[in-house]
């Protein structure tokens, strides 16, 4: 069976699996990394949102064979390590505002939030209400208002 | 062992003392005659206590206080005995114990016989136990109980009933534990129980000795089961109940460590999916390429089952590919050829007639008919379950709100005794009514049996929308008559595609039918009568339900009938106000039956500045809702101006924007106001969705929507930028229901605001249902779309 090597949460991993299997299933079913959730399988609900080389992406839409050995995949499990802490500042904001309800979408929401803040900063600005309006992640519990507050609060904590 | 401590801000032994009352002088000293409750100490190695669920005697409910309306209405059935009381009553003679165990590390453990699906009941239940036991919240560990058939009716999570029905039993059990700990400490310290107090997980003596609960856990244990009388802590001594607390599972949720059913690793339970029919409940005639699909990469099994063709493989991705590769000859389903128009015609024929009594001359009428299209109660976690069925036993894992029914029905299906089937209740990724049913557990059990292997079954999102349960399409015909500024009659005929209540609540009602003040009604009519309250005095009031067409997979969606029924009523209220030249808020206020409802209405009108001047194309809407012993009011502002409705967000359906919501809520006693706010927030998102954007289109026997970018639940671009939720000061000593409360009020207020902003009362929901489709429907064969491959290019 073909082998696919990439960096997952800071460590090189190799998965023995057919190359067209989407990364979400390689993470969940082969490697046992279950933070990224399935919500649609077609890249629209964004429950599986993780980072690929620091950018938000949906692993449900990337065949594992598209990854190179130096590609860095970060899931919610690896987010705190990117800041060398037990929790990422965005997670702390989430905790303080008690954002989660059922919690199913929350890993994806947080990974999106971190990437949105980074993207705004790379453009030389801070995240705005208009940016918040474009976040696509579904929260079927409807805790959107707390998500908005937490993204802004988390952005302030991300220095 | 005993330590000094400096603080004396603690809990005297009298209240909740589980020992002989001669030692419990607390009552007498406060001069009250508080009620006594019966709990149990159970034989166990460490202290283990219990109380009966539903054991609290119910005080008869006062009819709603009359408001100064000229033409009061008689109380409806739901005002005399509502669904909450029914569920609680049903538990009385049959309920068994809810048990709390104290470990030697000082932690209290209990398994809640309910499903946590996001509503926050593990947190609020832990708070209730921590309060009565004087234990820090983080020392209370809550898990979800496996199906316990001996609980009969008392393991059903629905009707926003959990806290209402478990509040006293949890407190009683915790009070028994506290009493035993005090007695054990008294023996250790050689001091009278009456001199001891408890605080933060320790017993304190007047001399300053401190004994941790953990140290007392073995000493306080019993060698035989004993009944114990207790009194409960005075509410004015509460330190935790009524304070906003973070969810007990918050850290797990934000770190990805919270385990949902599909995150569990059950040995050999490989990913499994089902290839489903192109029309609702279609059937398999034959499969042309079974062998070919069995040979696909990663696939281990392909079998035909009652719902389609099941595939099992190493990854879900490979299951999706296999489902797409299957060539199946499909037979007809249960709604062949049906469309929105054919269902609407059936509803029209099934509508019960209005019976307007003789009225004075000059009486005028508001006549309206509202249509509520099919809506999906899909959660973000699709239908899913793990099953391991053996020759003589079965084990199931899933988020189940009626796990006893699941266990019994799966046992029946498998031909096994109920005792041979174990059902574990997992954390749920949302429910909204879906998890009242055990569709996935039932299907997983069938597949596991046929394959002879454990399976981890998950529905594809597209199937979840197209073959999953829906909130049935319905219509509401309303006629209200008025003269001289007063409403004389209000008649509402709600007609709905049949709602399936076959999830266990039916057993409750059947058993309790004789108690109901509704006569000999069909089951769904009974549900309707138990849940529908007109909050206003509208003269002679009748609200009736009729049902038609059982061809659809339906179930209740958060708040069952209320969002539609109450939305119609509040819109008619606005129309009555307009025609009678009255202010919508003032008229509602004047006709309101319940003073608590009037108080929340006043609060949102004040905070939300009702009647403030707003630009053309924008407007306010106001509504109340009373249910579950709770009241809520919503003031909504909406922007329907073209520059807003036409705003562009890539790939989004925008339309009218709710710009502000002010919500005031009174649940009697708010155990966790922070959790209550979360429930209101979620209900508001639901109300916005079903009013403006969320609906299913039925065409040729199937629903067109197949993804979250086709079924438009509220998204960030439709979220109100301004949201204020006001939790009213407690007006009672018992928590009412909250989980579903906000939806009806929010839907009604959004609809009223929309009507006032556009100048036309909306009559079809969601309001954009007749617009050109905002998406290209996915094919029905194969039933699920291919997984995309362009994720790298779309990274942001």
From TrEMBL, chain A:
Domain of life where this protein originates: Bacteria
Keyword line: 2Fe-2S, Iron, Iron-sulfur, Metal-binding
Domain 2Fe-2S ferredoxin-type: 2-79
Keyword Iron-sulfur in annotation: yes
UniProt KW Iron-sulfur keyword: yes
PANTHER family membership: BLR6218 PROTEIN, OXIDOREDUCTASE WITH IRON-SULFUR SUBUNIT
Protein name as annotated: (2Fe-2S)-binding protein
Organism for this UniProt entry: Streptomyces flavochromogenes
Lineage, uppermost ranks: Bacteria, Bacillati, Actinomycetota, Actinomycetes, Kitasatosporales
């Amino acid at each position: 069976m073909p082998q696919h090597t990439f960096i997952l949460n800071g460590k090189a991993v190799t998965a023995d699996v057919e190359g067209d299997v989407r990364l979400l299933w390689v993470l969940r079913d082969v490697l046992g990394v279950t933070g990224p959730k399935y919500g649609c399988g077609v890249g629209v609900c964004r429950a599986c949102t993780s980072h690929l080389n620091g950018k938000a992406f949906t692993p449900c839409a990337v065949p594992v064979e598209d990854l190179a050995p130096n590609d860095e995949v970060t899931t919610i499990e690896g987010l705190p390590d990117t800041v060398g802490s037990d929790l990422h500042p965005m997670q702390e904001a989430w905790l303080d505002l008690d954002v989660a309800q059922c919690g199913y979408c929350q890993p994806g929401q947080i990974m999106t939030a971190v990437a949105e803040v980074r993207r705004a900063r790379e453009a030389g600005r801070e995240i705005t209400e208009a940016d918040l309006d474009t976040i696509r992640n579904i929260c079927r519990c409807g805790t959107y208002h707390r998500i908005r507050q937490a993204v802004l609060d988390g952005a302030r904590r991300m220095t | 062992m005993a330590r000094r401590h400096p603080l004396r801000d603690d809990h005297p032994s009298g209240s909740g003392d589980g020992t002989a009352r001669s030692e419990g002088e607390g009552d007498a000293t406060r001069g009250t005659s508080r009620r006594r409750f019966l709990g149990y100490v159970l034989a166990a190695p460490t202290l283990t206590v219990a109380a009966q669920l539903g054991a609290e005697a119910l005080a008869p409910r006062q009819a709603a206080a009359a408001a100064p309306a000229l033409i009061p209405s008689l109380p409806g059935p739901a005002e005399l005995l509502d669904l909450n009381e029914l569920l609680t009553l049903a538990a009385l003679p049959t309920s068994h114990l809810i048990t709390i165990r104290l470990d030697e590390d000082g932690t209290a453990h209990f398994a809640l016989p309910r499903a946590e699906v996001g509503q926050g009941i593990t947190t609020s239940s832990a708070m209730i136990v921590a309060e009565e036991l004087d234990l820090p919240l983080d020392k209370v560990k809550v898990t979800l109980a496996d199906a316990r058939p001996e609980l009969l009716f008392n393991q059903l999570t629905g009707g926003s009933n959990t806290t209402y029905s478990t509040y006293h039993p949890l407190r009683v059990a915790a009070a028994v534990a506290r009493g035993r700990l005090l007695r054990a400490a008294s023996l250790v310290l050689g001091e009278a129980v009456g001199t001891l107090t408890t605080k933060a997980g320790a017993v304190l003596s007047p001399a300053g000795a401190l004994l941790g609960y953990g140290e007392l856990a073995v000493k306080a244990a019993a060698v035989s089961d004993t009944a114990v009388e207790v009194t409960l802590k005075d509410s004015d001594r509460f330190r935790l109940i009524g304070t906003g607390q973070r969810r007990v599972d918050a850290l797990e949720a934000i770190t990805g460590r919270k385990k949902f059913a599909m995150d569990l690793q059950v040995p050999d339970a490989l990913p499994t999916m089902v290839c489903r029919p192109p029309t609702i409940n279609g059937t398999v005639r034959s499969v042309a390429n079974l062998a070919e699909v069995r040979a696909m990469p990663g696939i281990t099994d392909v079998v035909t089952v009652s719902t389609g063709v099941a595939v099992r493989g190493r990854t879900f991705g490979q299951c999706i590919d296999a489902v797409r590769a299957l060539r199946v000859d499909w037979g007809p389903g249960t709604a062949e050829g049906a469309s929105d128009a054919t269902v609407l015609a059936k509803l029209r024929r099934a509508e019960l007639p209005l019976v307007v009594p003789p009225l004075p001359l000059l009486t005028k009428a508001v006549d309206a008919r509202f249509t509520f299209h099919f809506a999906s109660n899909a959660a973000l976690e699709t239908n899913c379950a793990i099953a391991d069925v053996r020759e003589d036993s079965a084990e199931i894992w899933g988020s189940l709100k009626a796990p006893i029914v699941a266990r019994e029905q799966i046992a029946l299906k498998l031909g096994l005794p109920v005792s041979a089937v174990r059902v574990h209740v997992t954390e749920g990724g949302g429910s909204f009514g879906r998890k009242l049913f055990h569709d996935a557990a039932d299907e997983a059990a069938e597949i596991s049996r046929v394959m002879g292997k454990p399976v981890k079954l998950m529905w594809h999102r597209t199937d979840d929308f197209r073959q999953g349960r829906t909130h049935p399409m319905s219509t509401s015909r309303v006629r209200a008559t008025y003269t001289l500024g007063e409403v004389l009659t209000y008649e509402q005929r709600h007609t709905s595609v049949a709602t399936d209540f076959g999830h266990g609540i039916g057993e409750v009602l059947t058993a309790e039918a004789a108690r109901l003040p509704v006569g000999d009604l069909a089951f769904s009519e009974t549900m309707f009568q138990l849940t529908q309250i007109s909050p206003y005095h509208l003269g002679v009031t009748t609200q009736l339900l009729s049902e038609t067409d059982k061809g659809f997979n339906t179930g209740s969606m958060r708040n069952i009938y209320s969002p539609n029924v109450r939305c119609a009523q509040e819109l008619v209220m606005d129309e009555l106000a307009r025609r009678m030249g009255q202010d919508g808020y003032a008229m509602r206020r004047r006709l309101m039956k319940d003073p608590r409802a009037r108080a929340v209405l006043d609060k949102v009108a004040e905070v939300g500045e009702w009647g403030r001047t707003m630009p053309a194309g924008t407007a306010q809407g106001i509504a109340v809702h009373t249910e579950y012993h709770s009241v809520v009011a919503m003031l909504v502002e909406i922007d329907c101006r073209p520059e807003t409705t036409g705003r562009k967000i890539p790939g989004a359906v925008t339309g009218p924007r709710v710009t502000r919501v002010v919500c005031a809520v009174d649940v009697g006693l708010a155990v966790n106001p922070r959790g209550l706010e979360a429930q209101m927030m979620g209900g508001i998102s639901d109300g916005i969705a079903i009013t403006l954007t969320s609906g299913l289109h039925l065409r040729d026997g199937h629903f067109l929507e197949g993804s979250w970018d086709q079924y438009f639940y509220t998204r960030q671009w439709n979220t109100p930028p301004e949201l204020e939720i006001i939790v009213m000061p407690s007006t009672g000593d018992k928590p009412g229901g909250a989980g579903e409360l906000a939806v009806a009020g929010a839907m009604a207020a959004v609809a009223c605001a929309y009507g006032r902003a556009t100048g036309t009362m909306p009559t079809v929901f969601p309001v954009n249902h007749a617009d050109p489709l905002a998406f290209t429907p996915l094919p029905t064969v194969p039933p699920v779309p291919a997984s995309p491959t362009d994720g790298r290019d779309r990274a942001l």
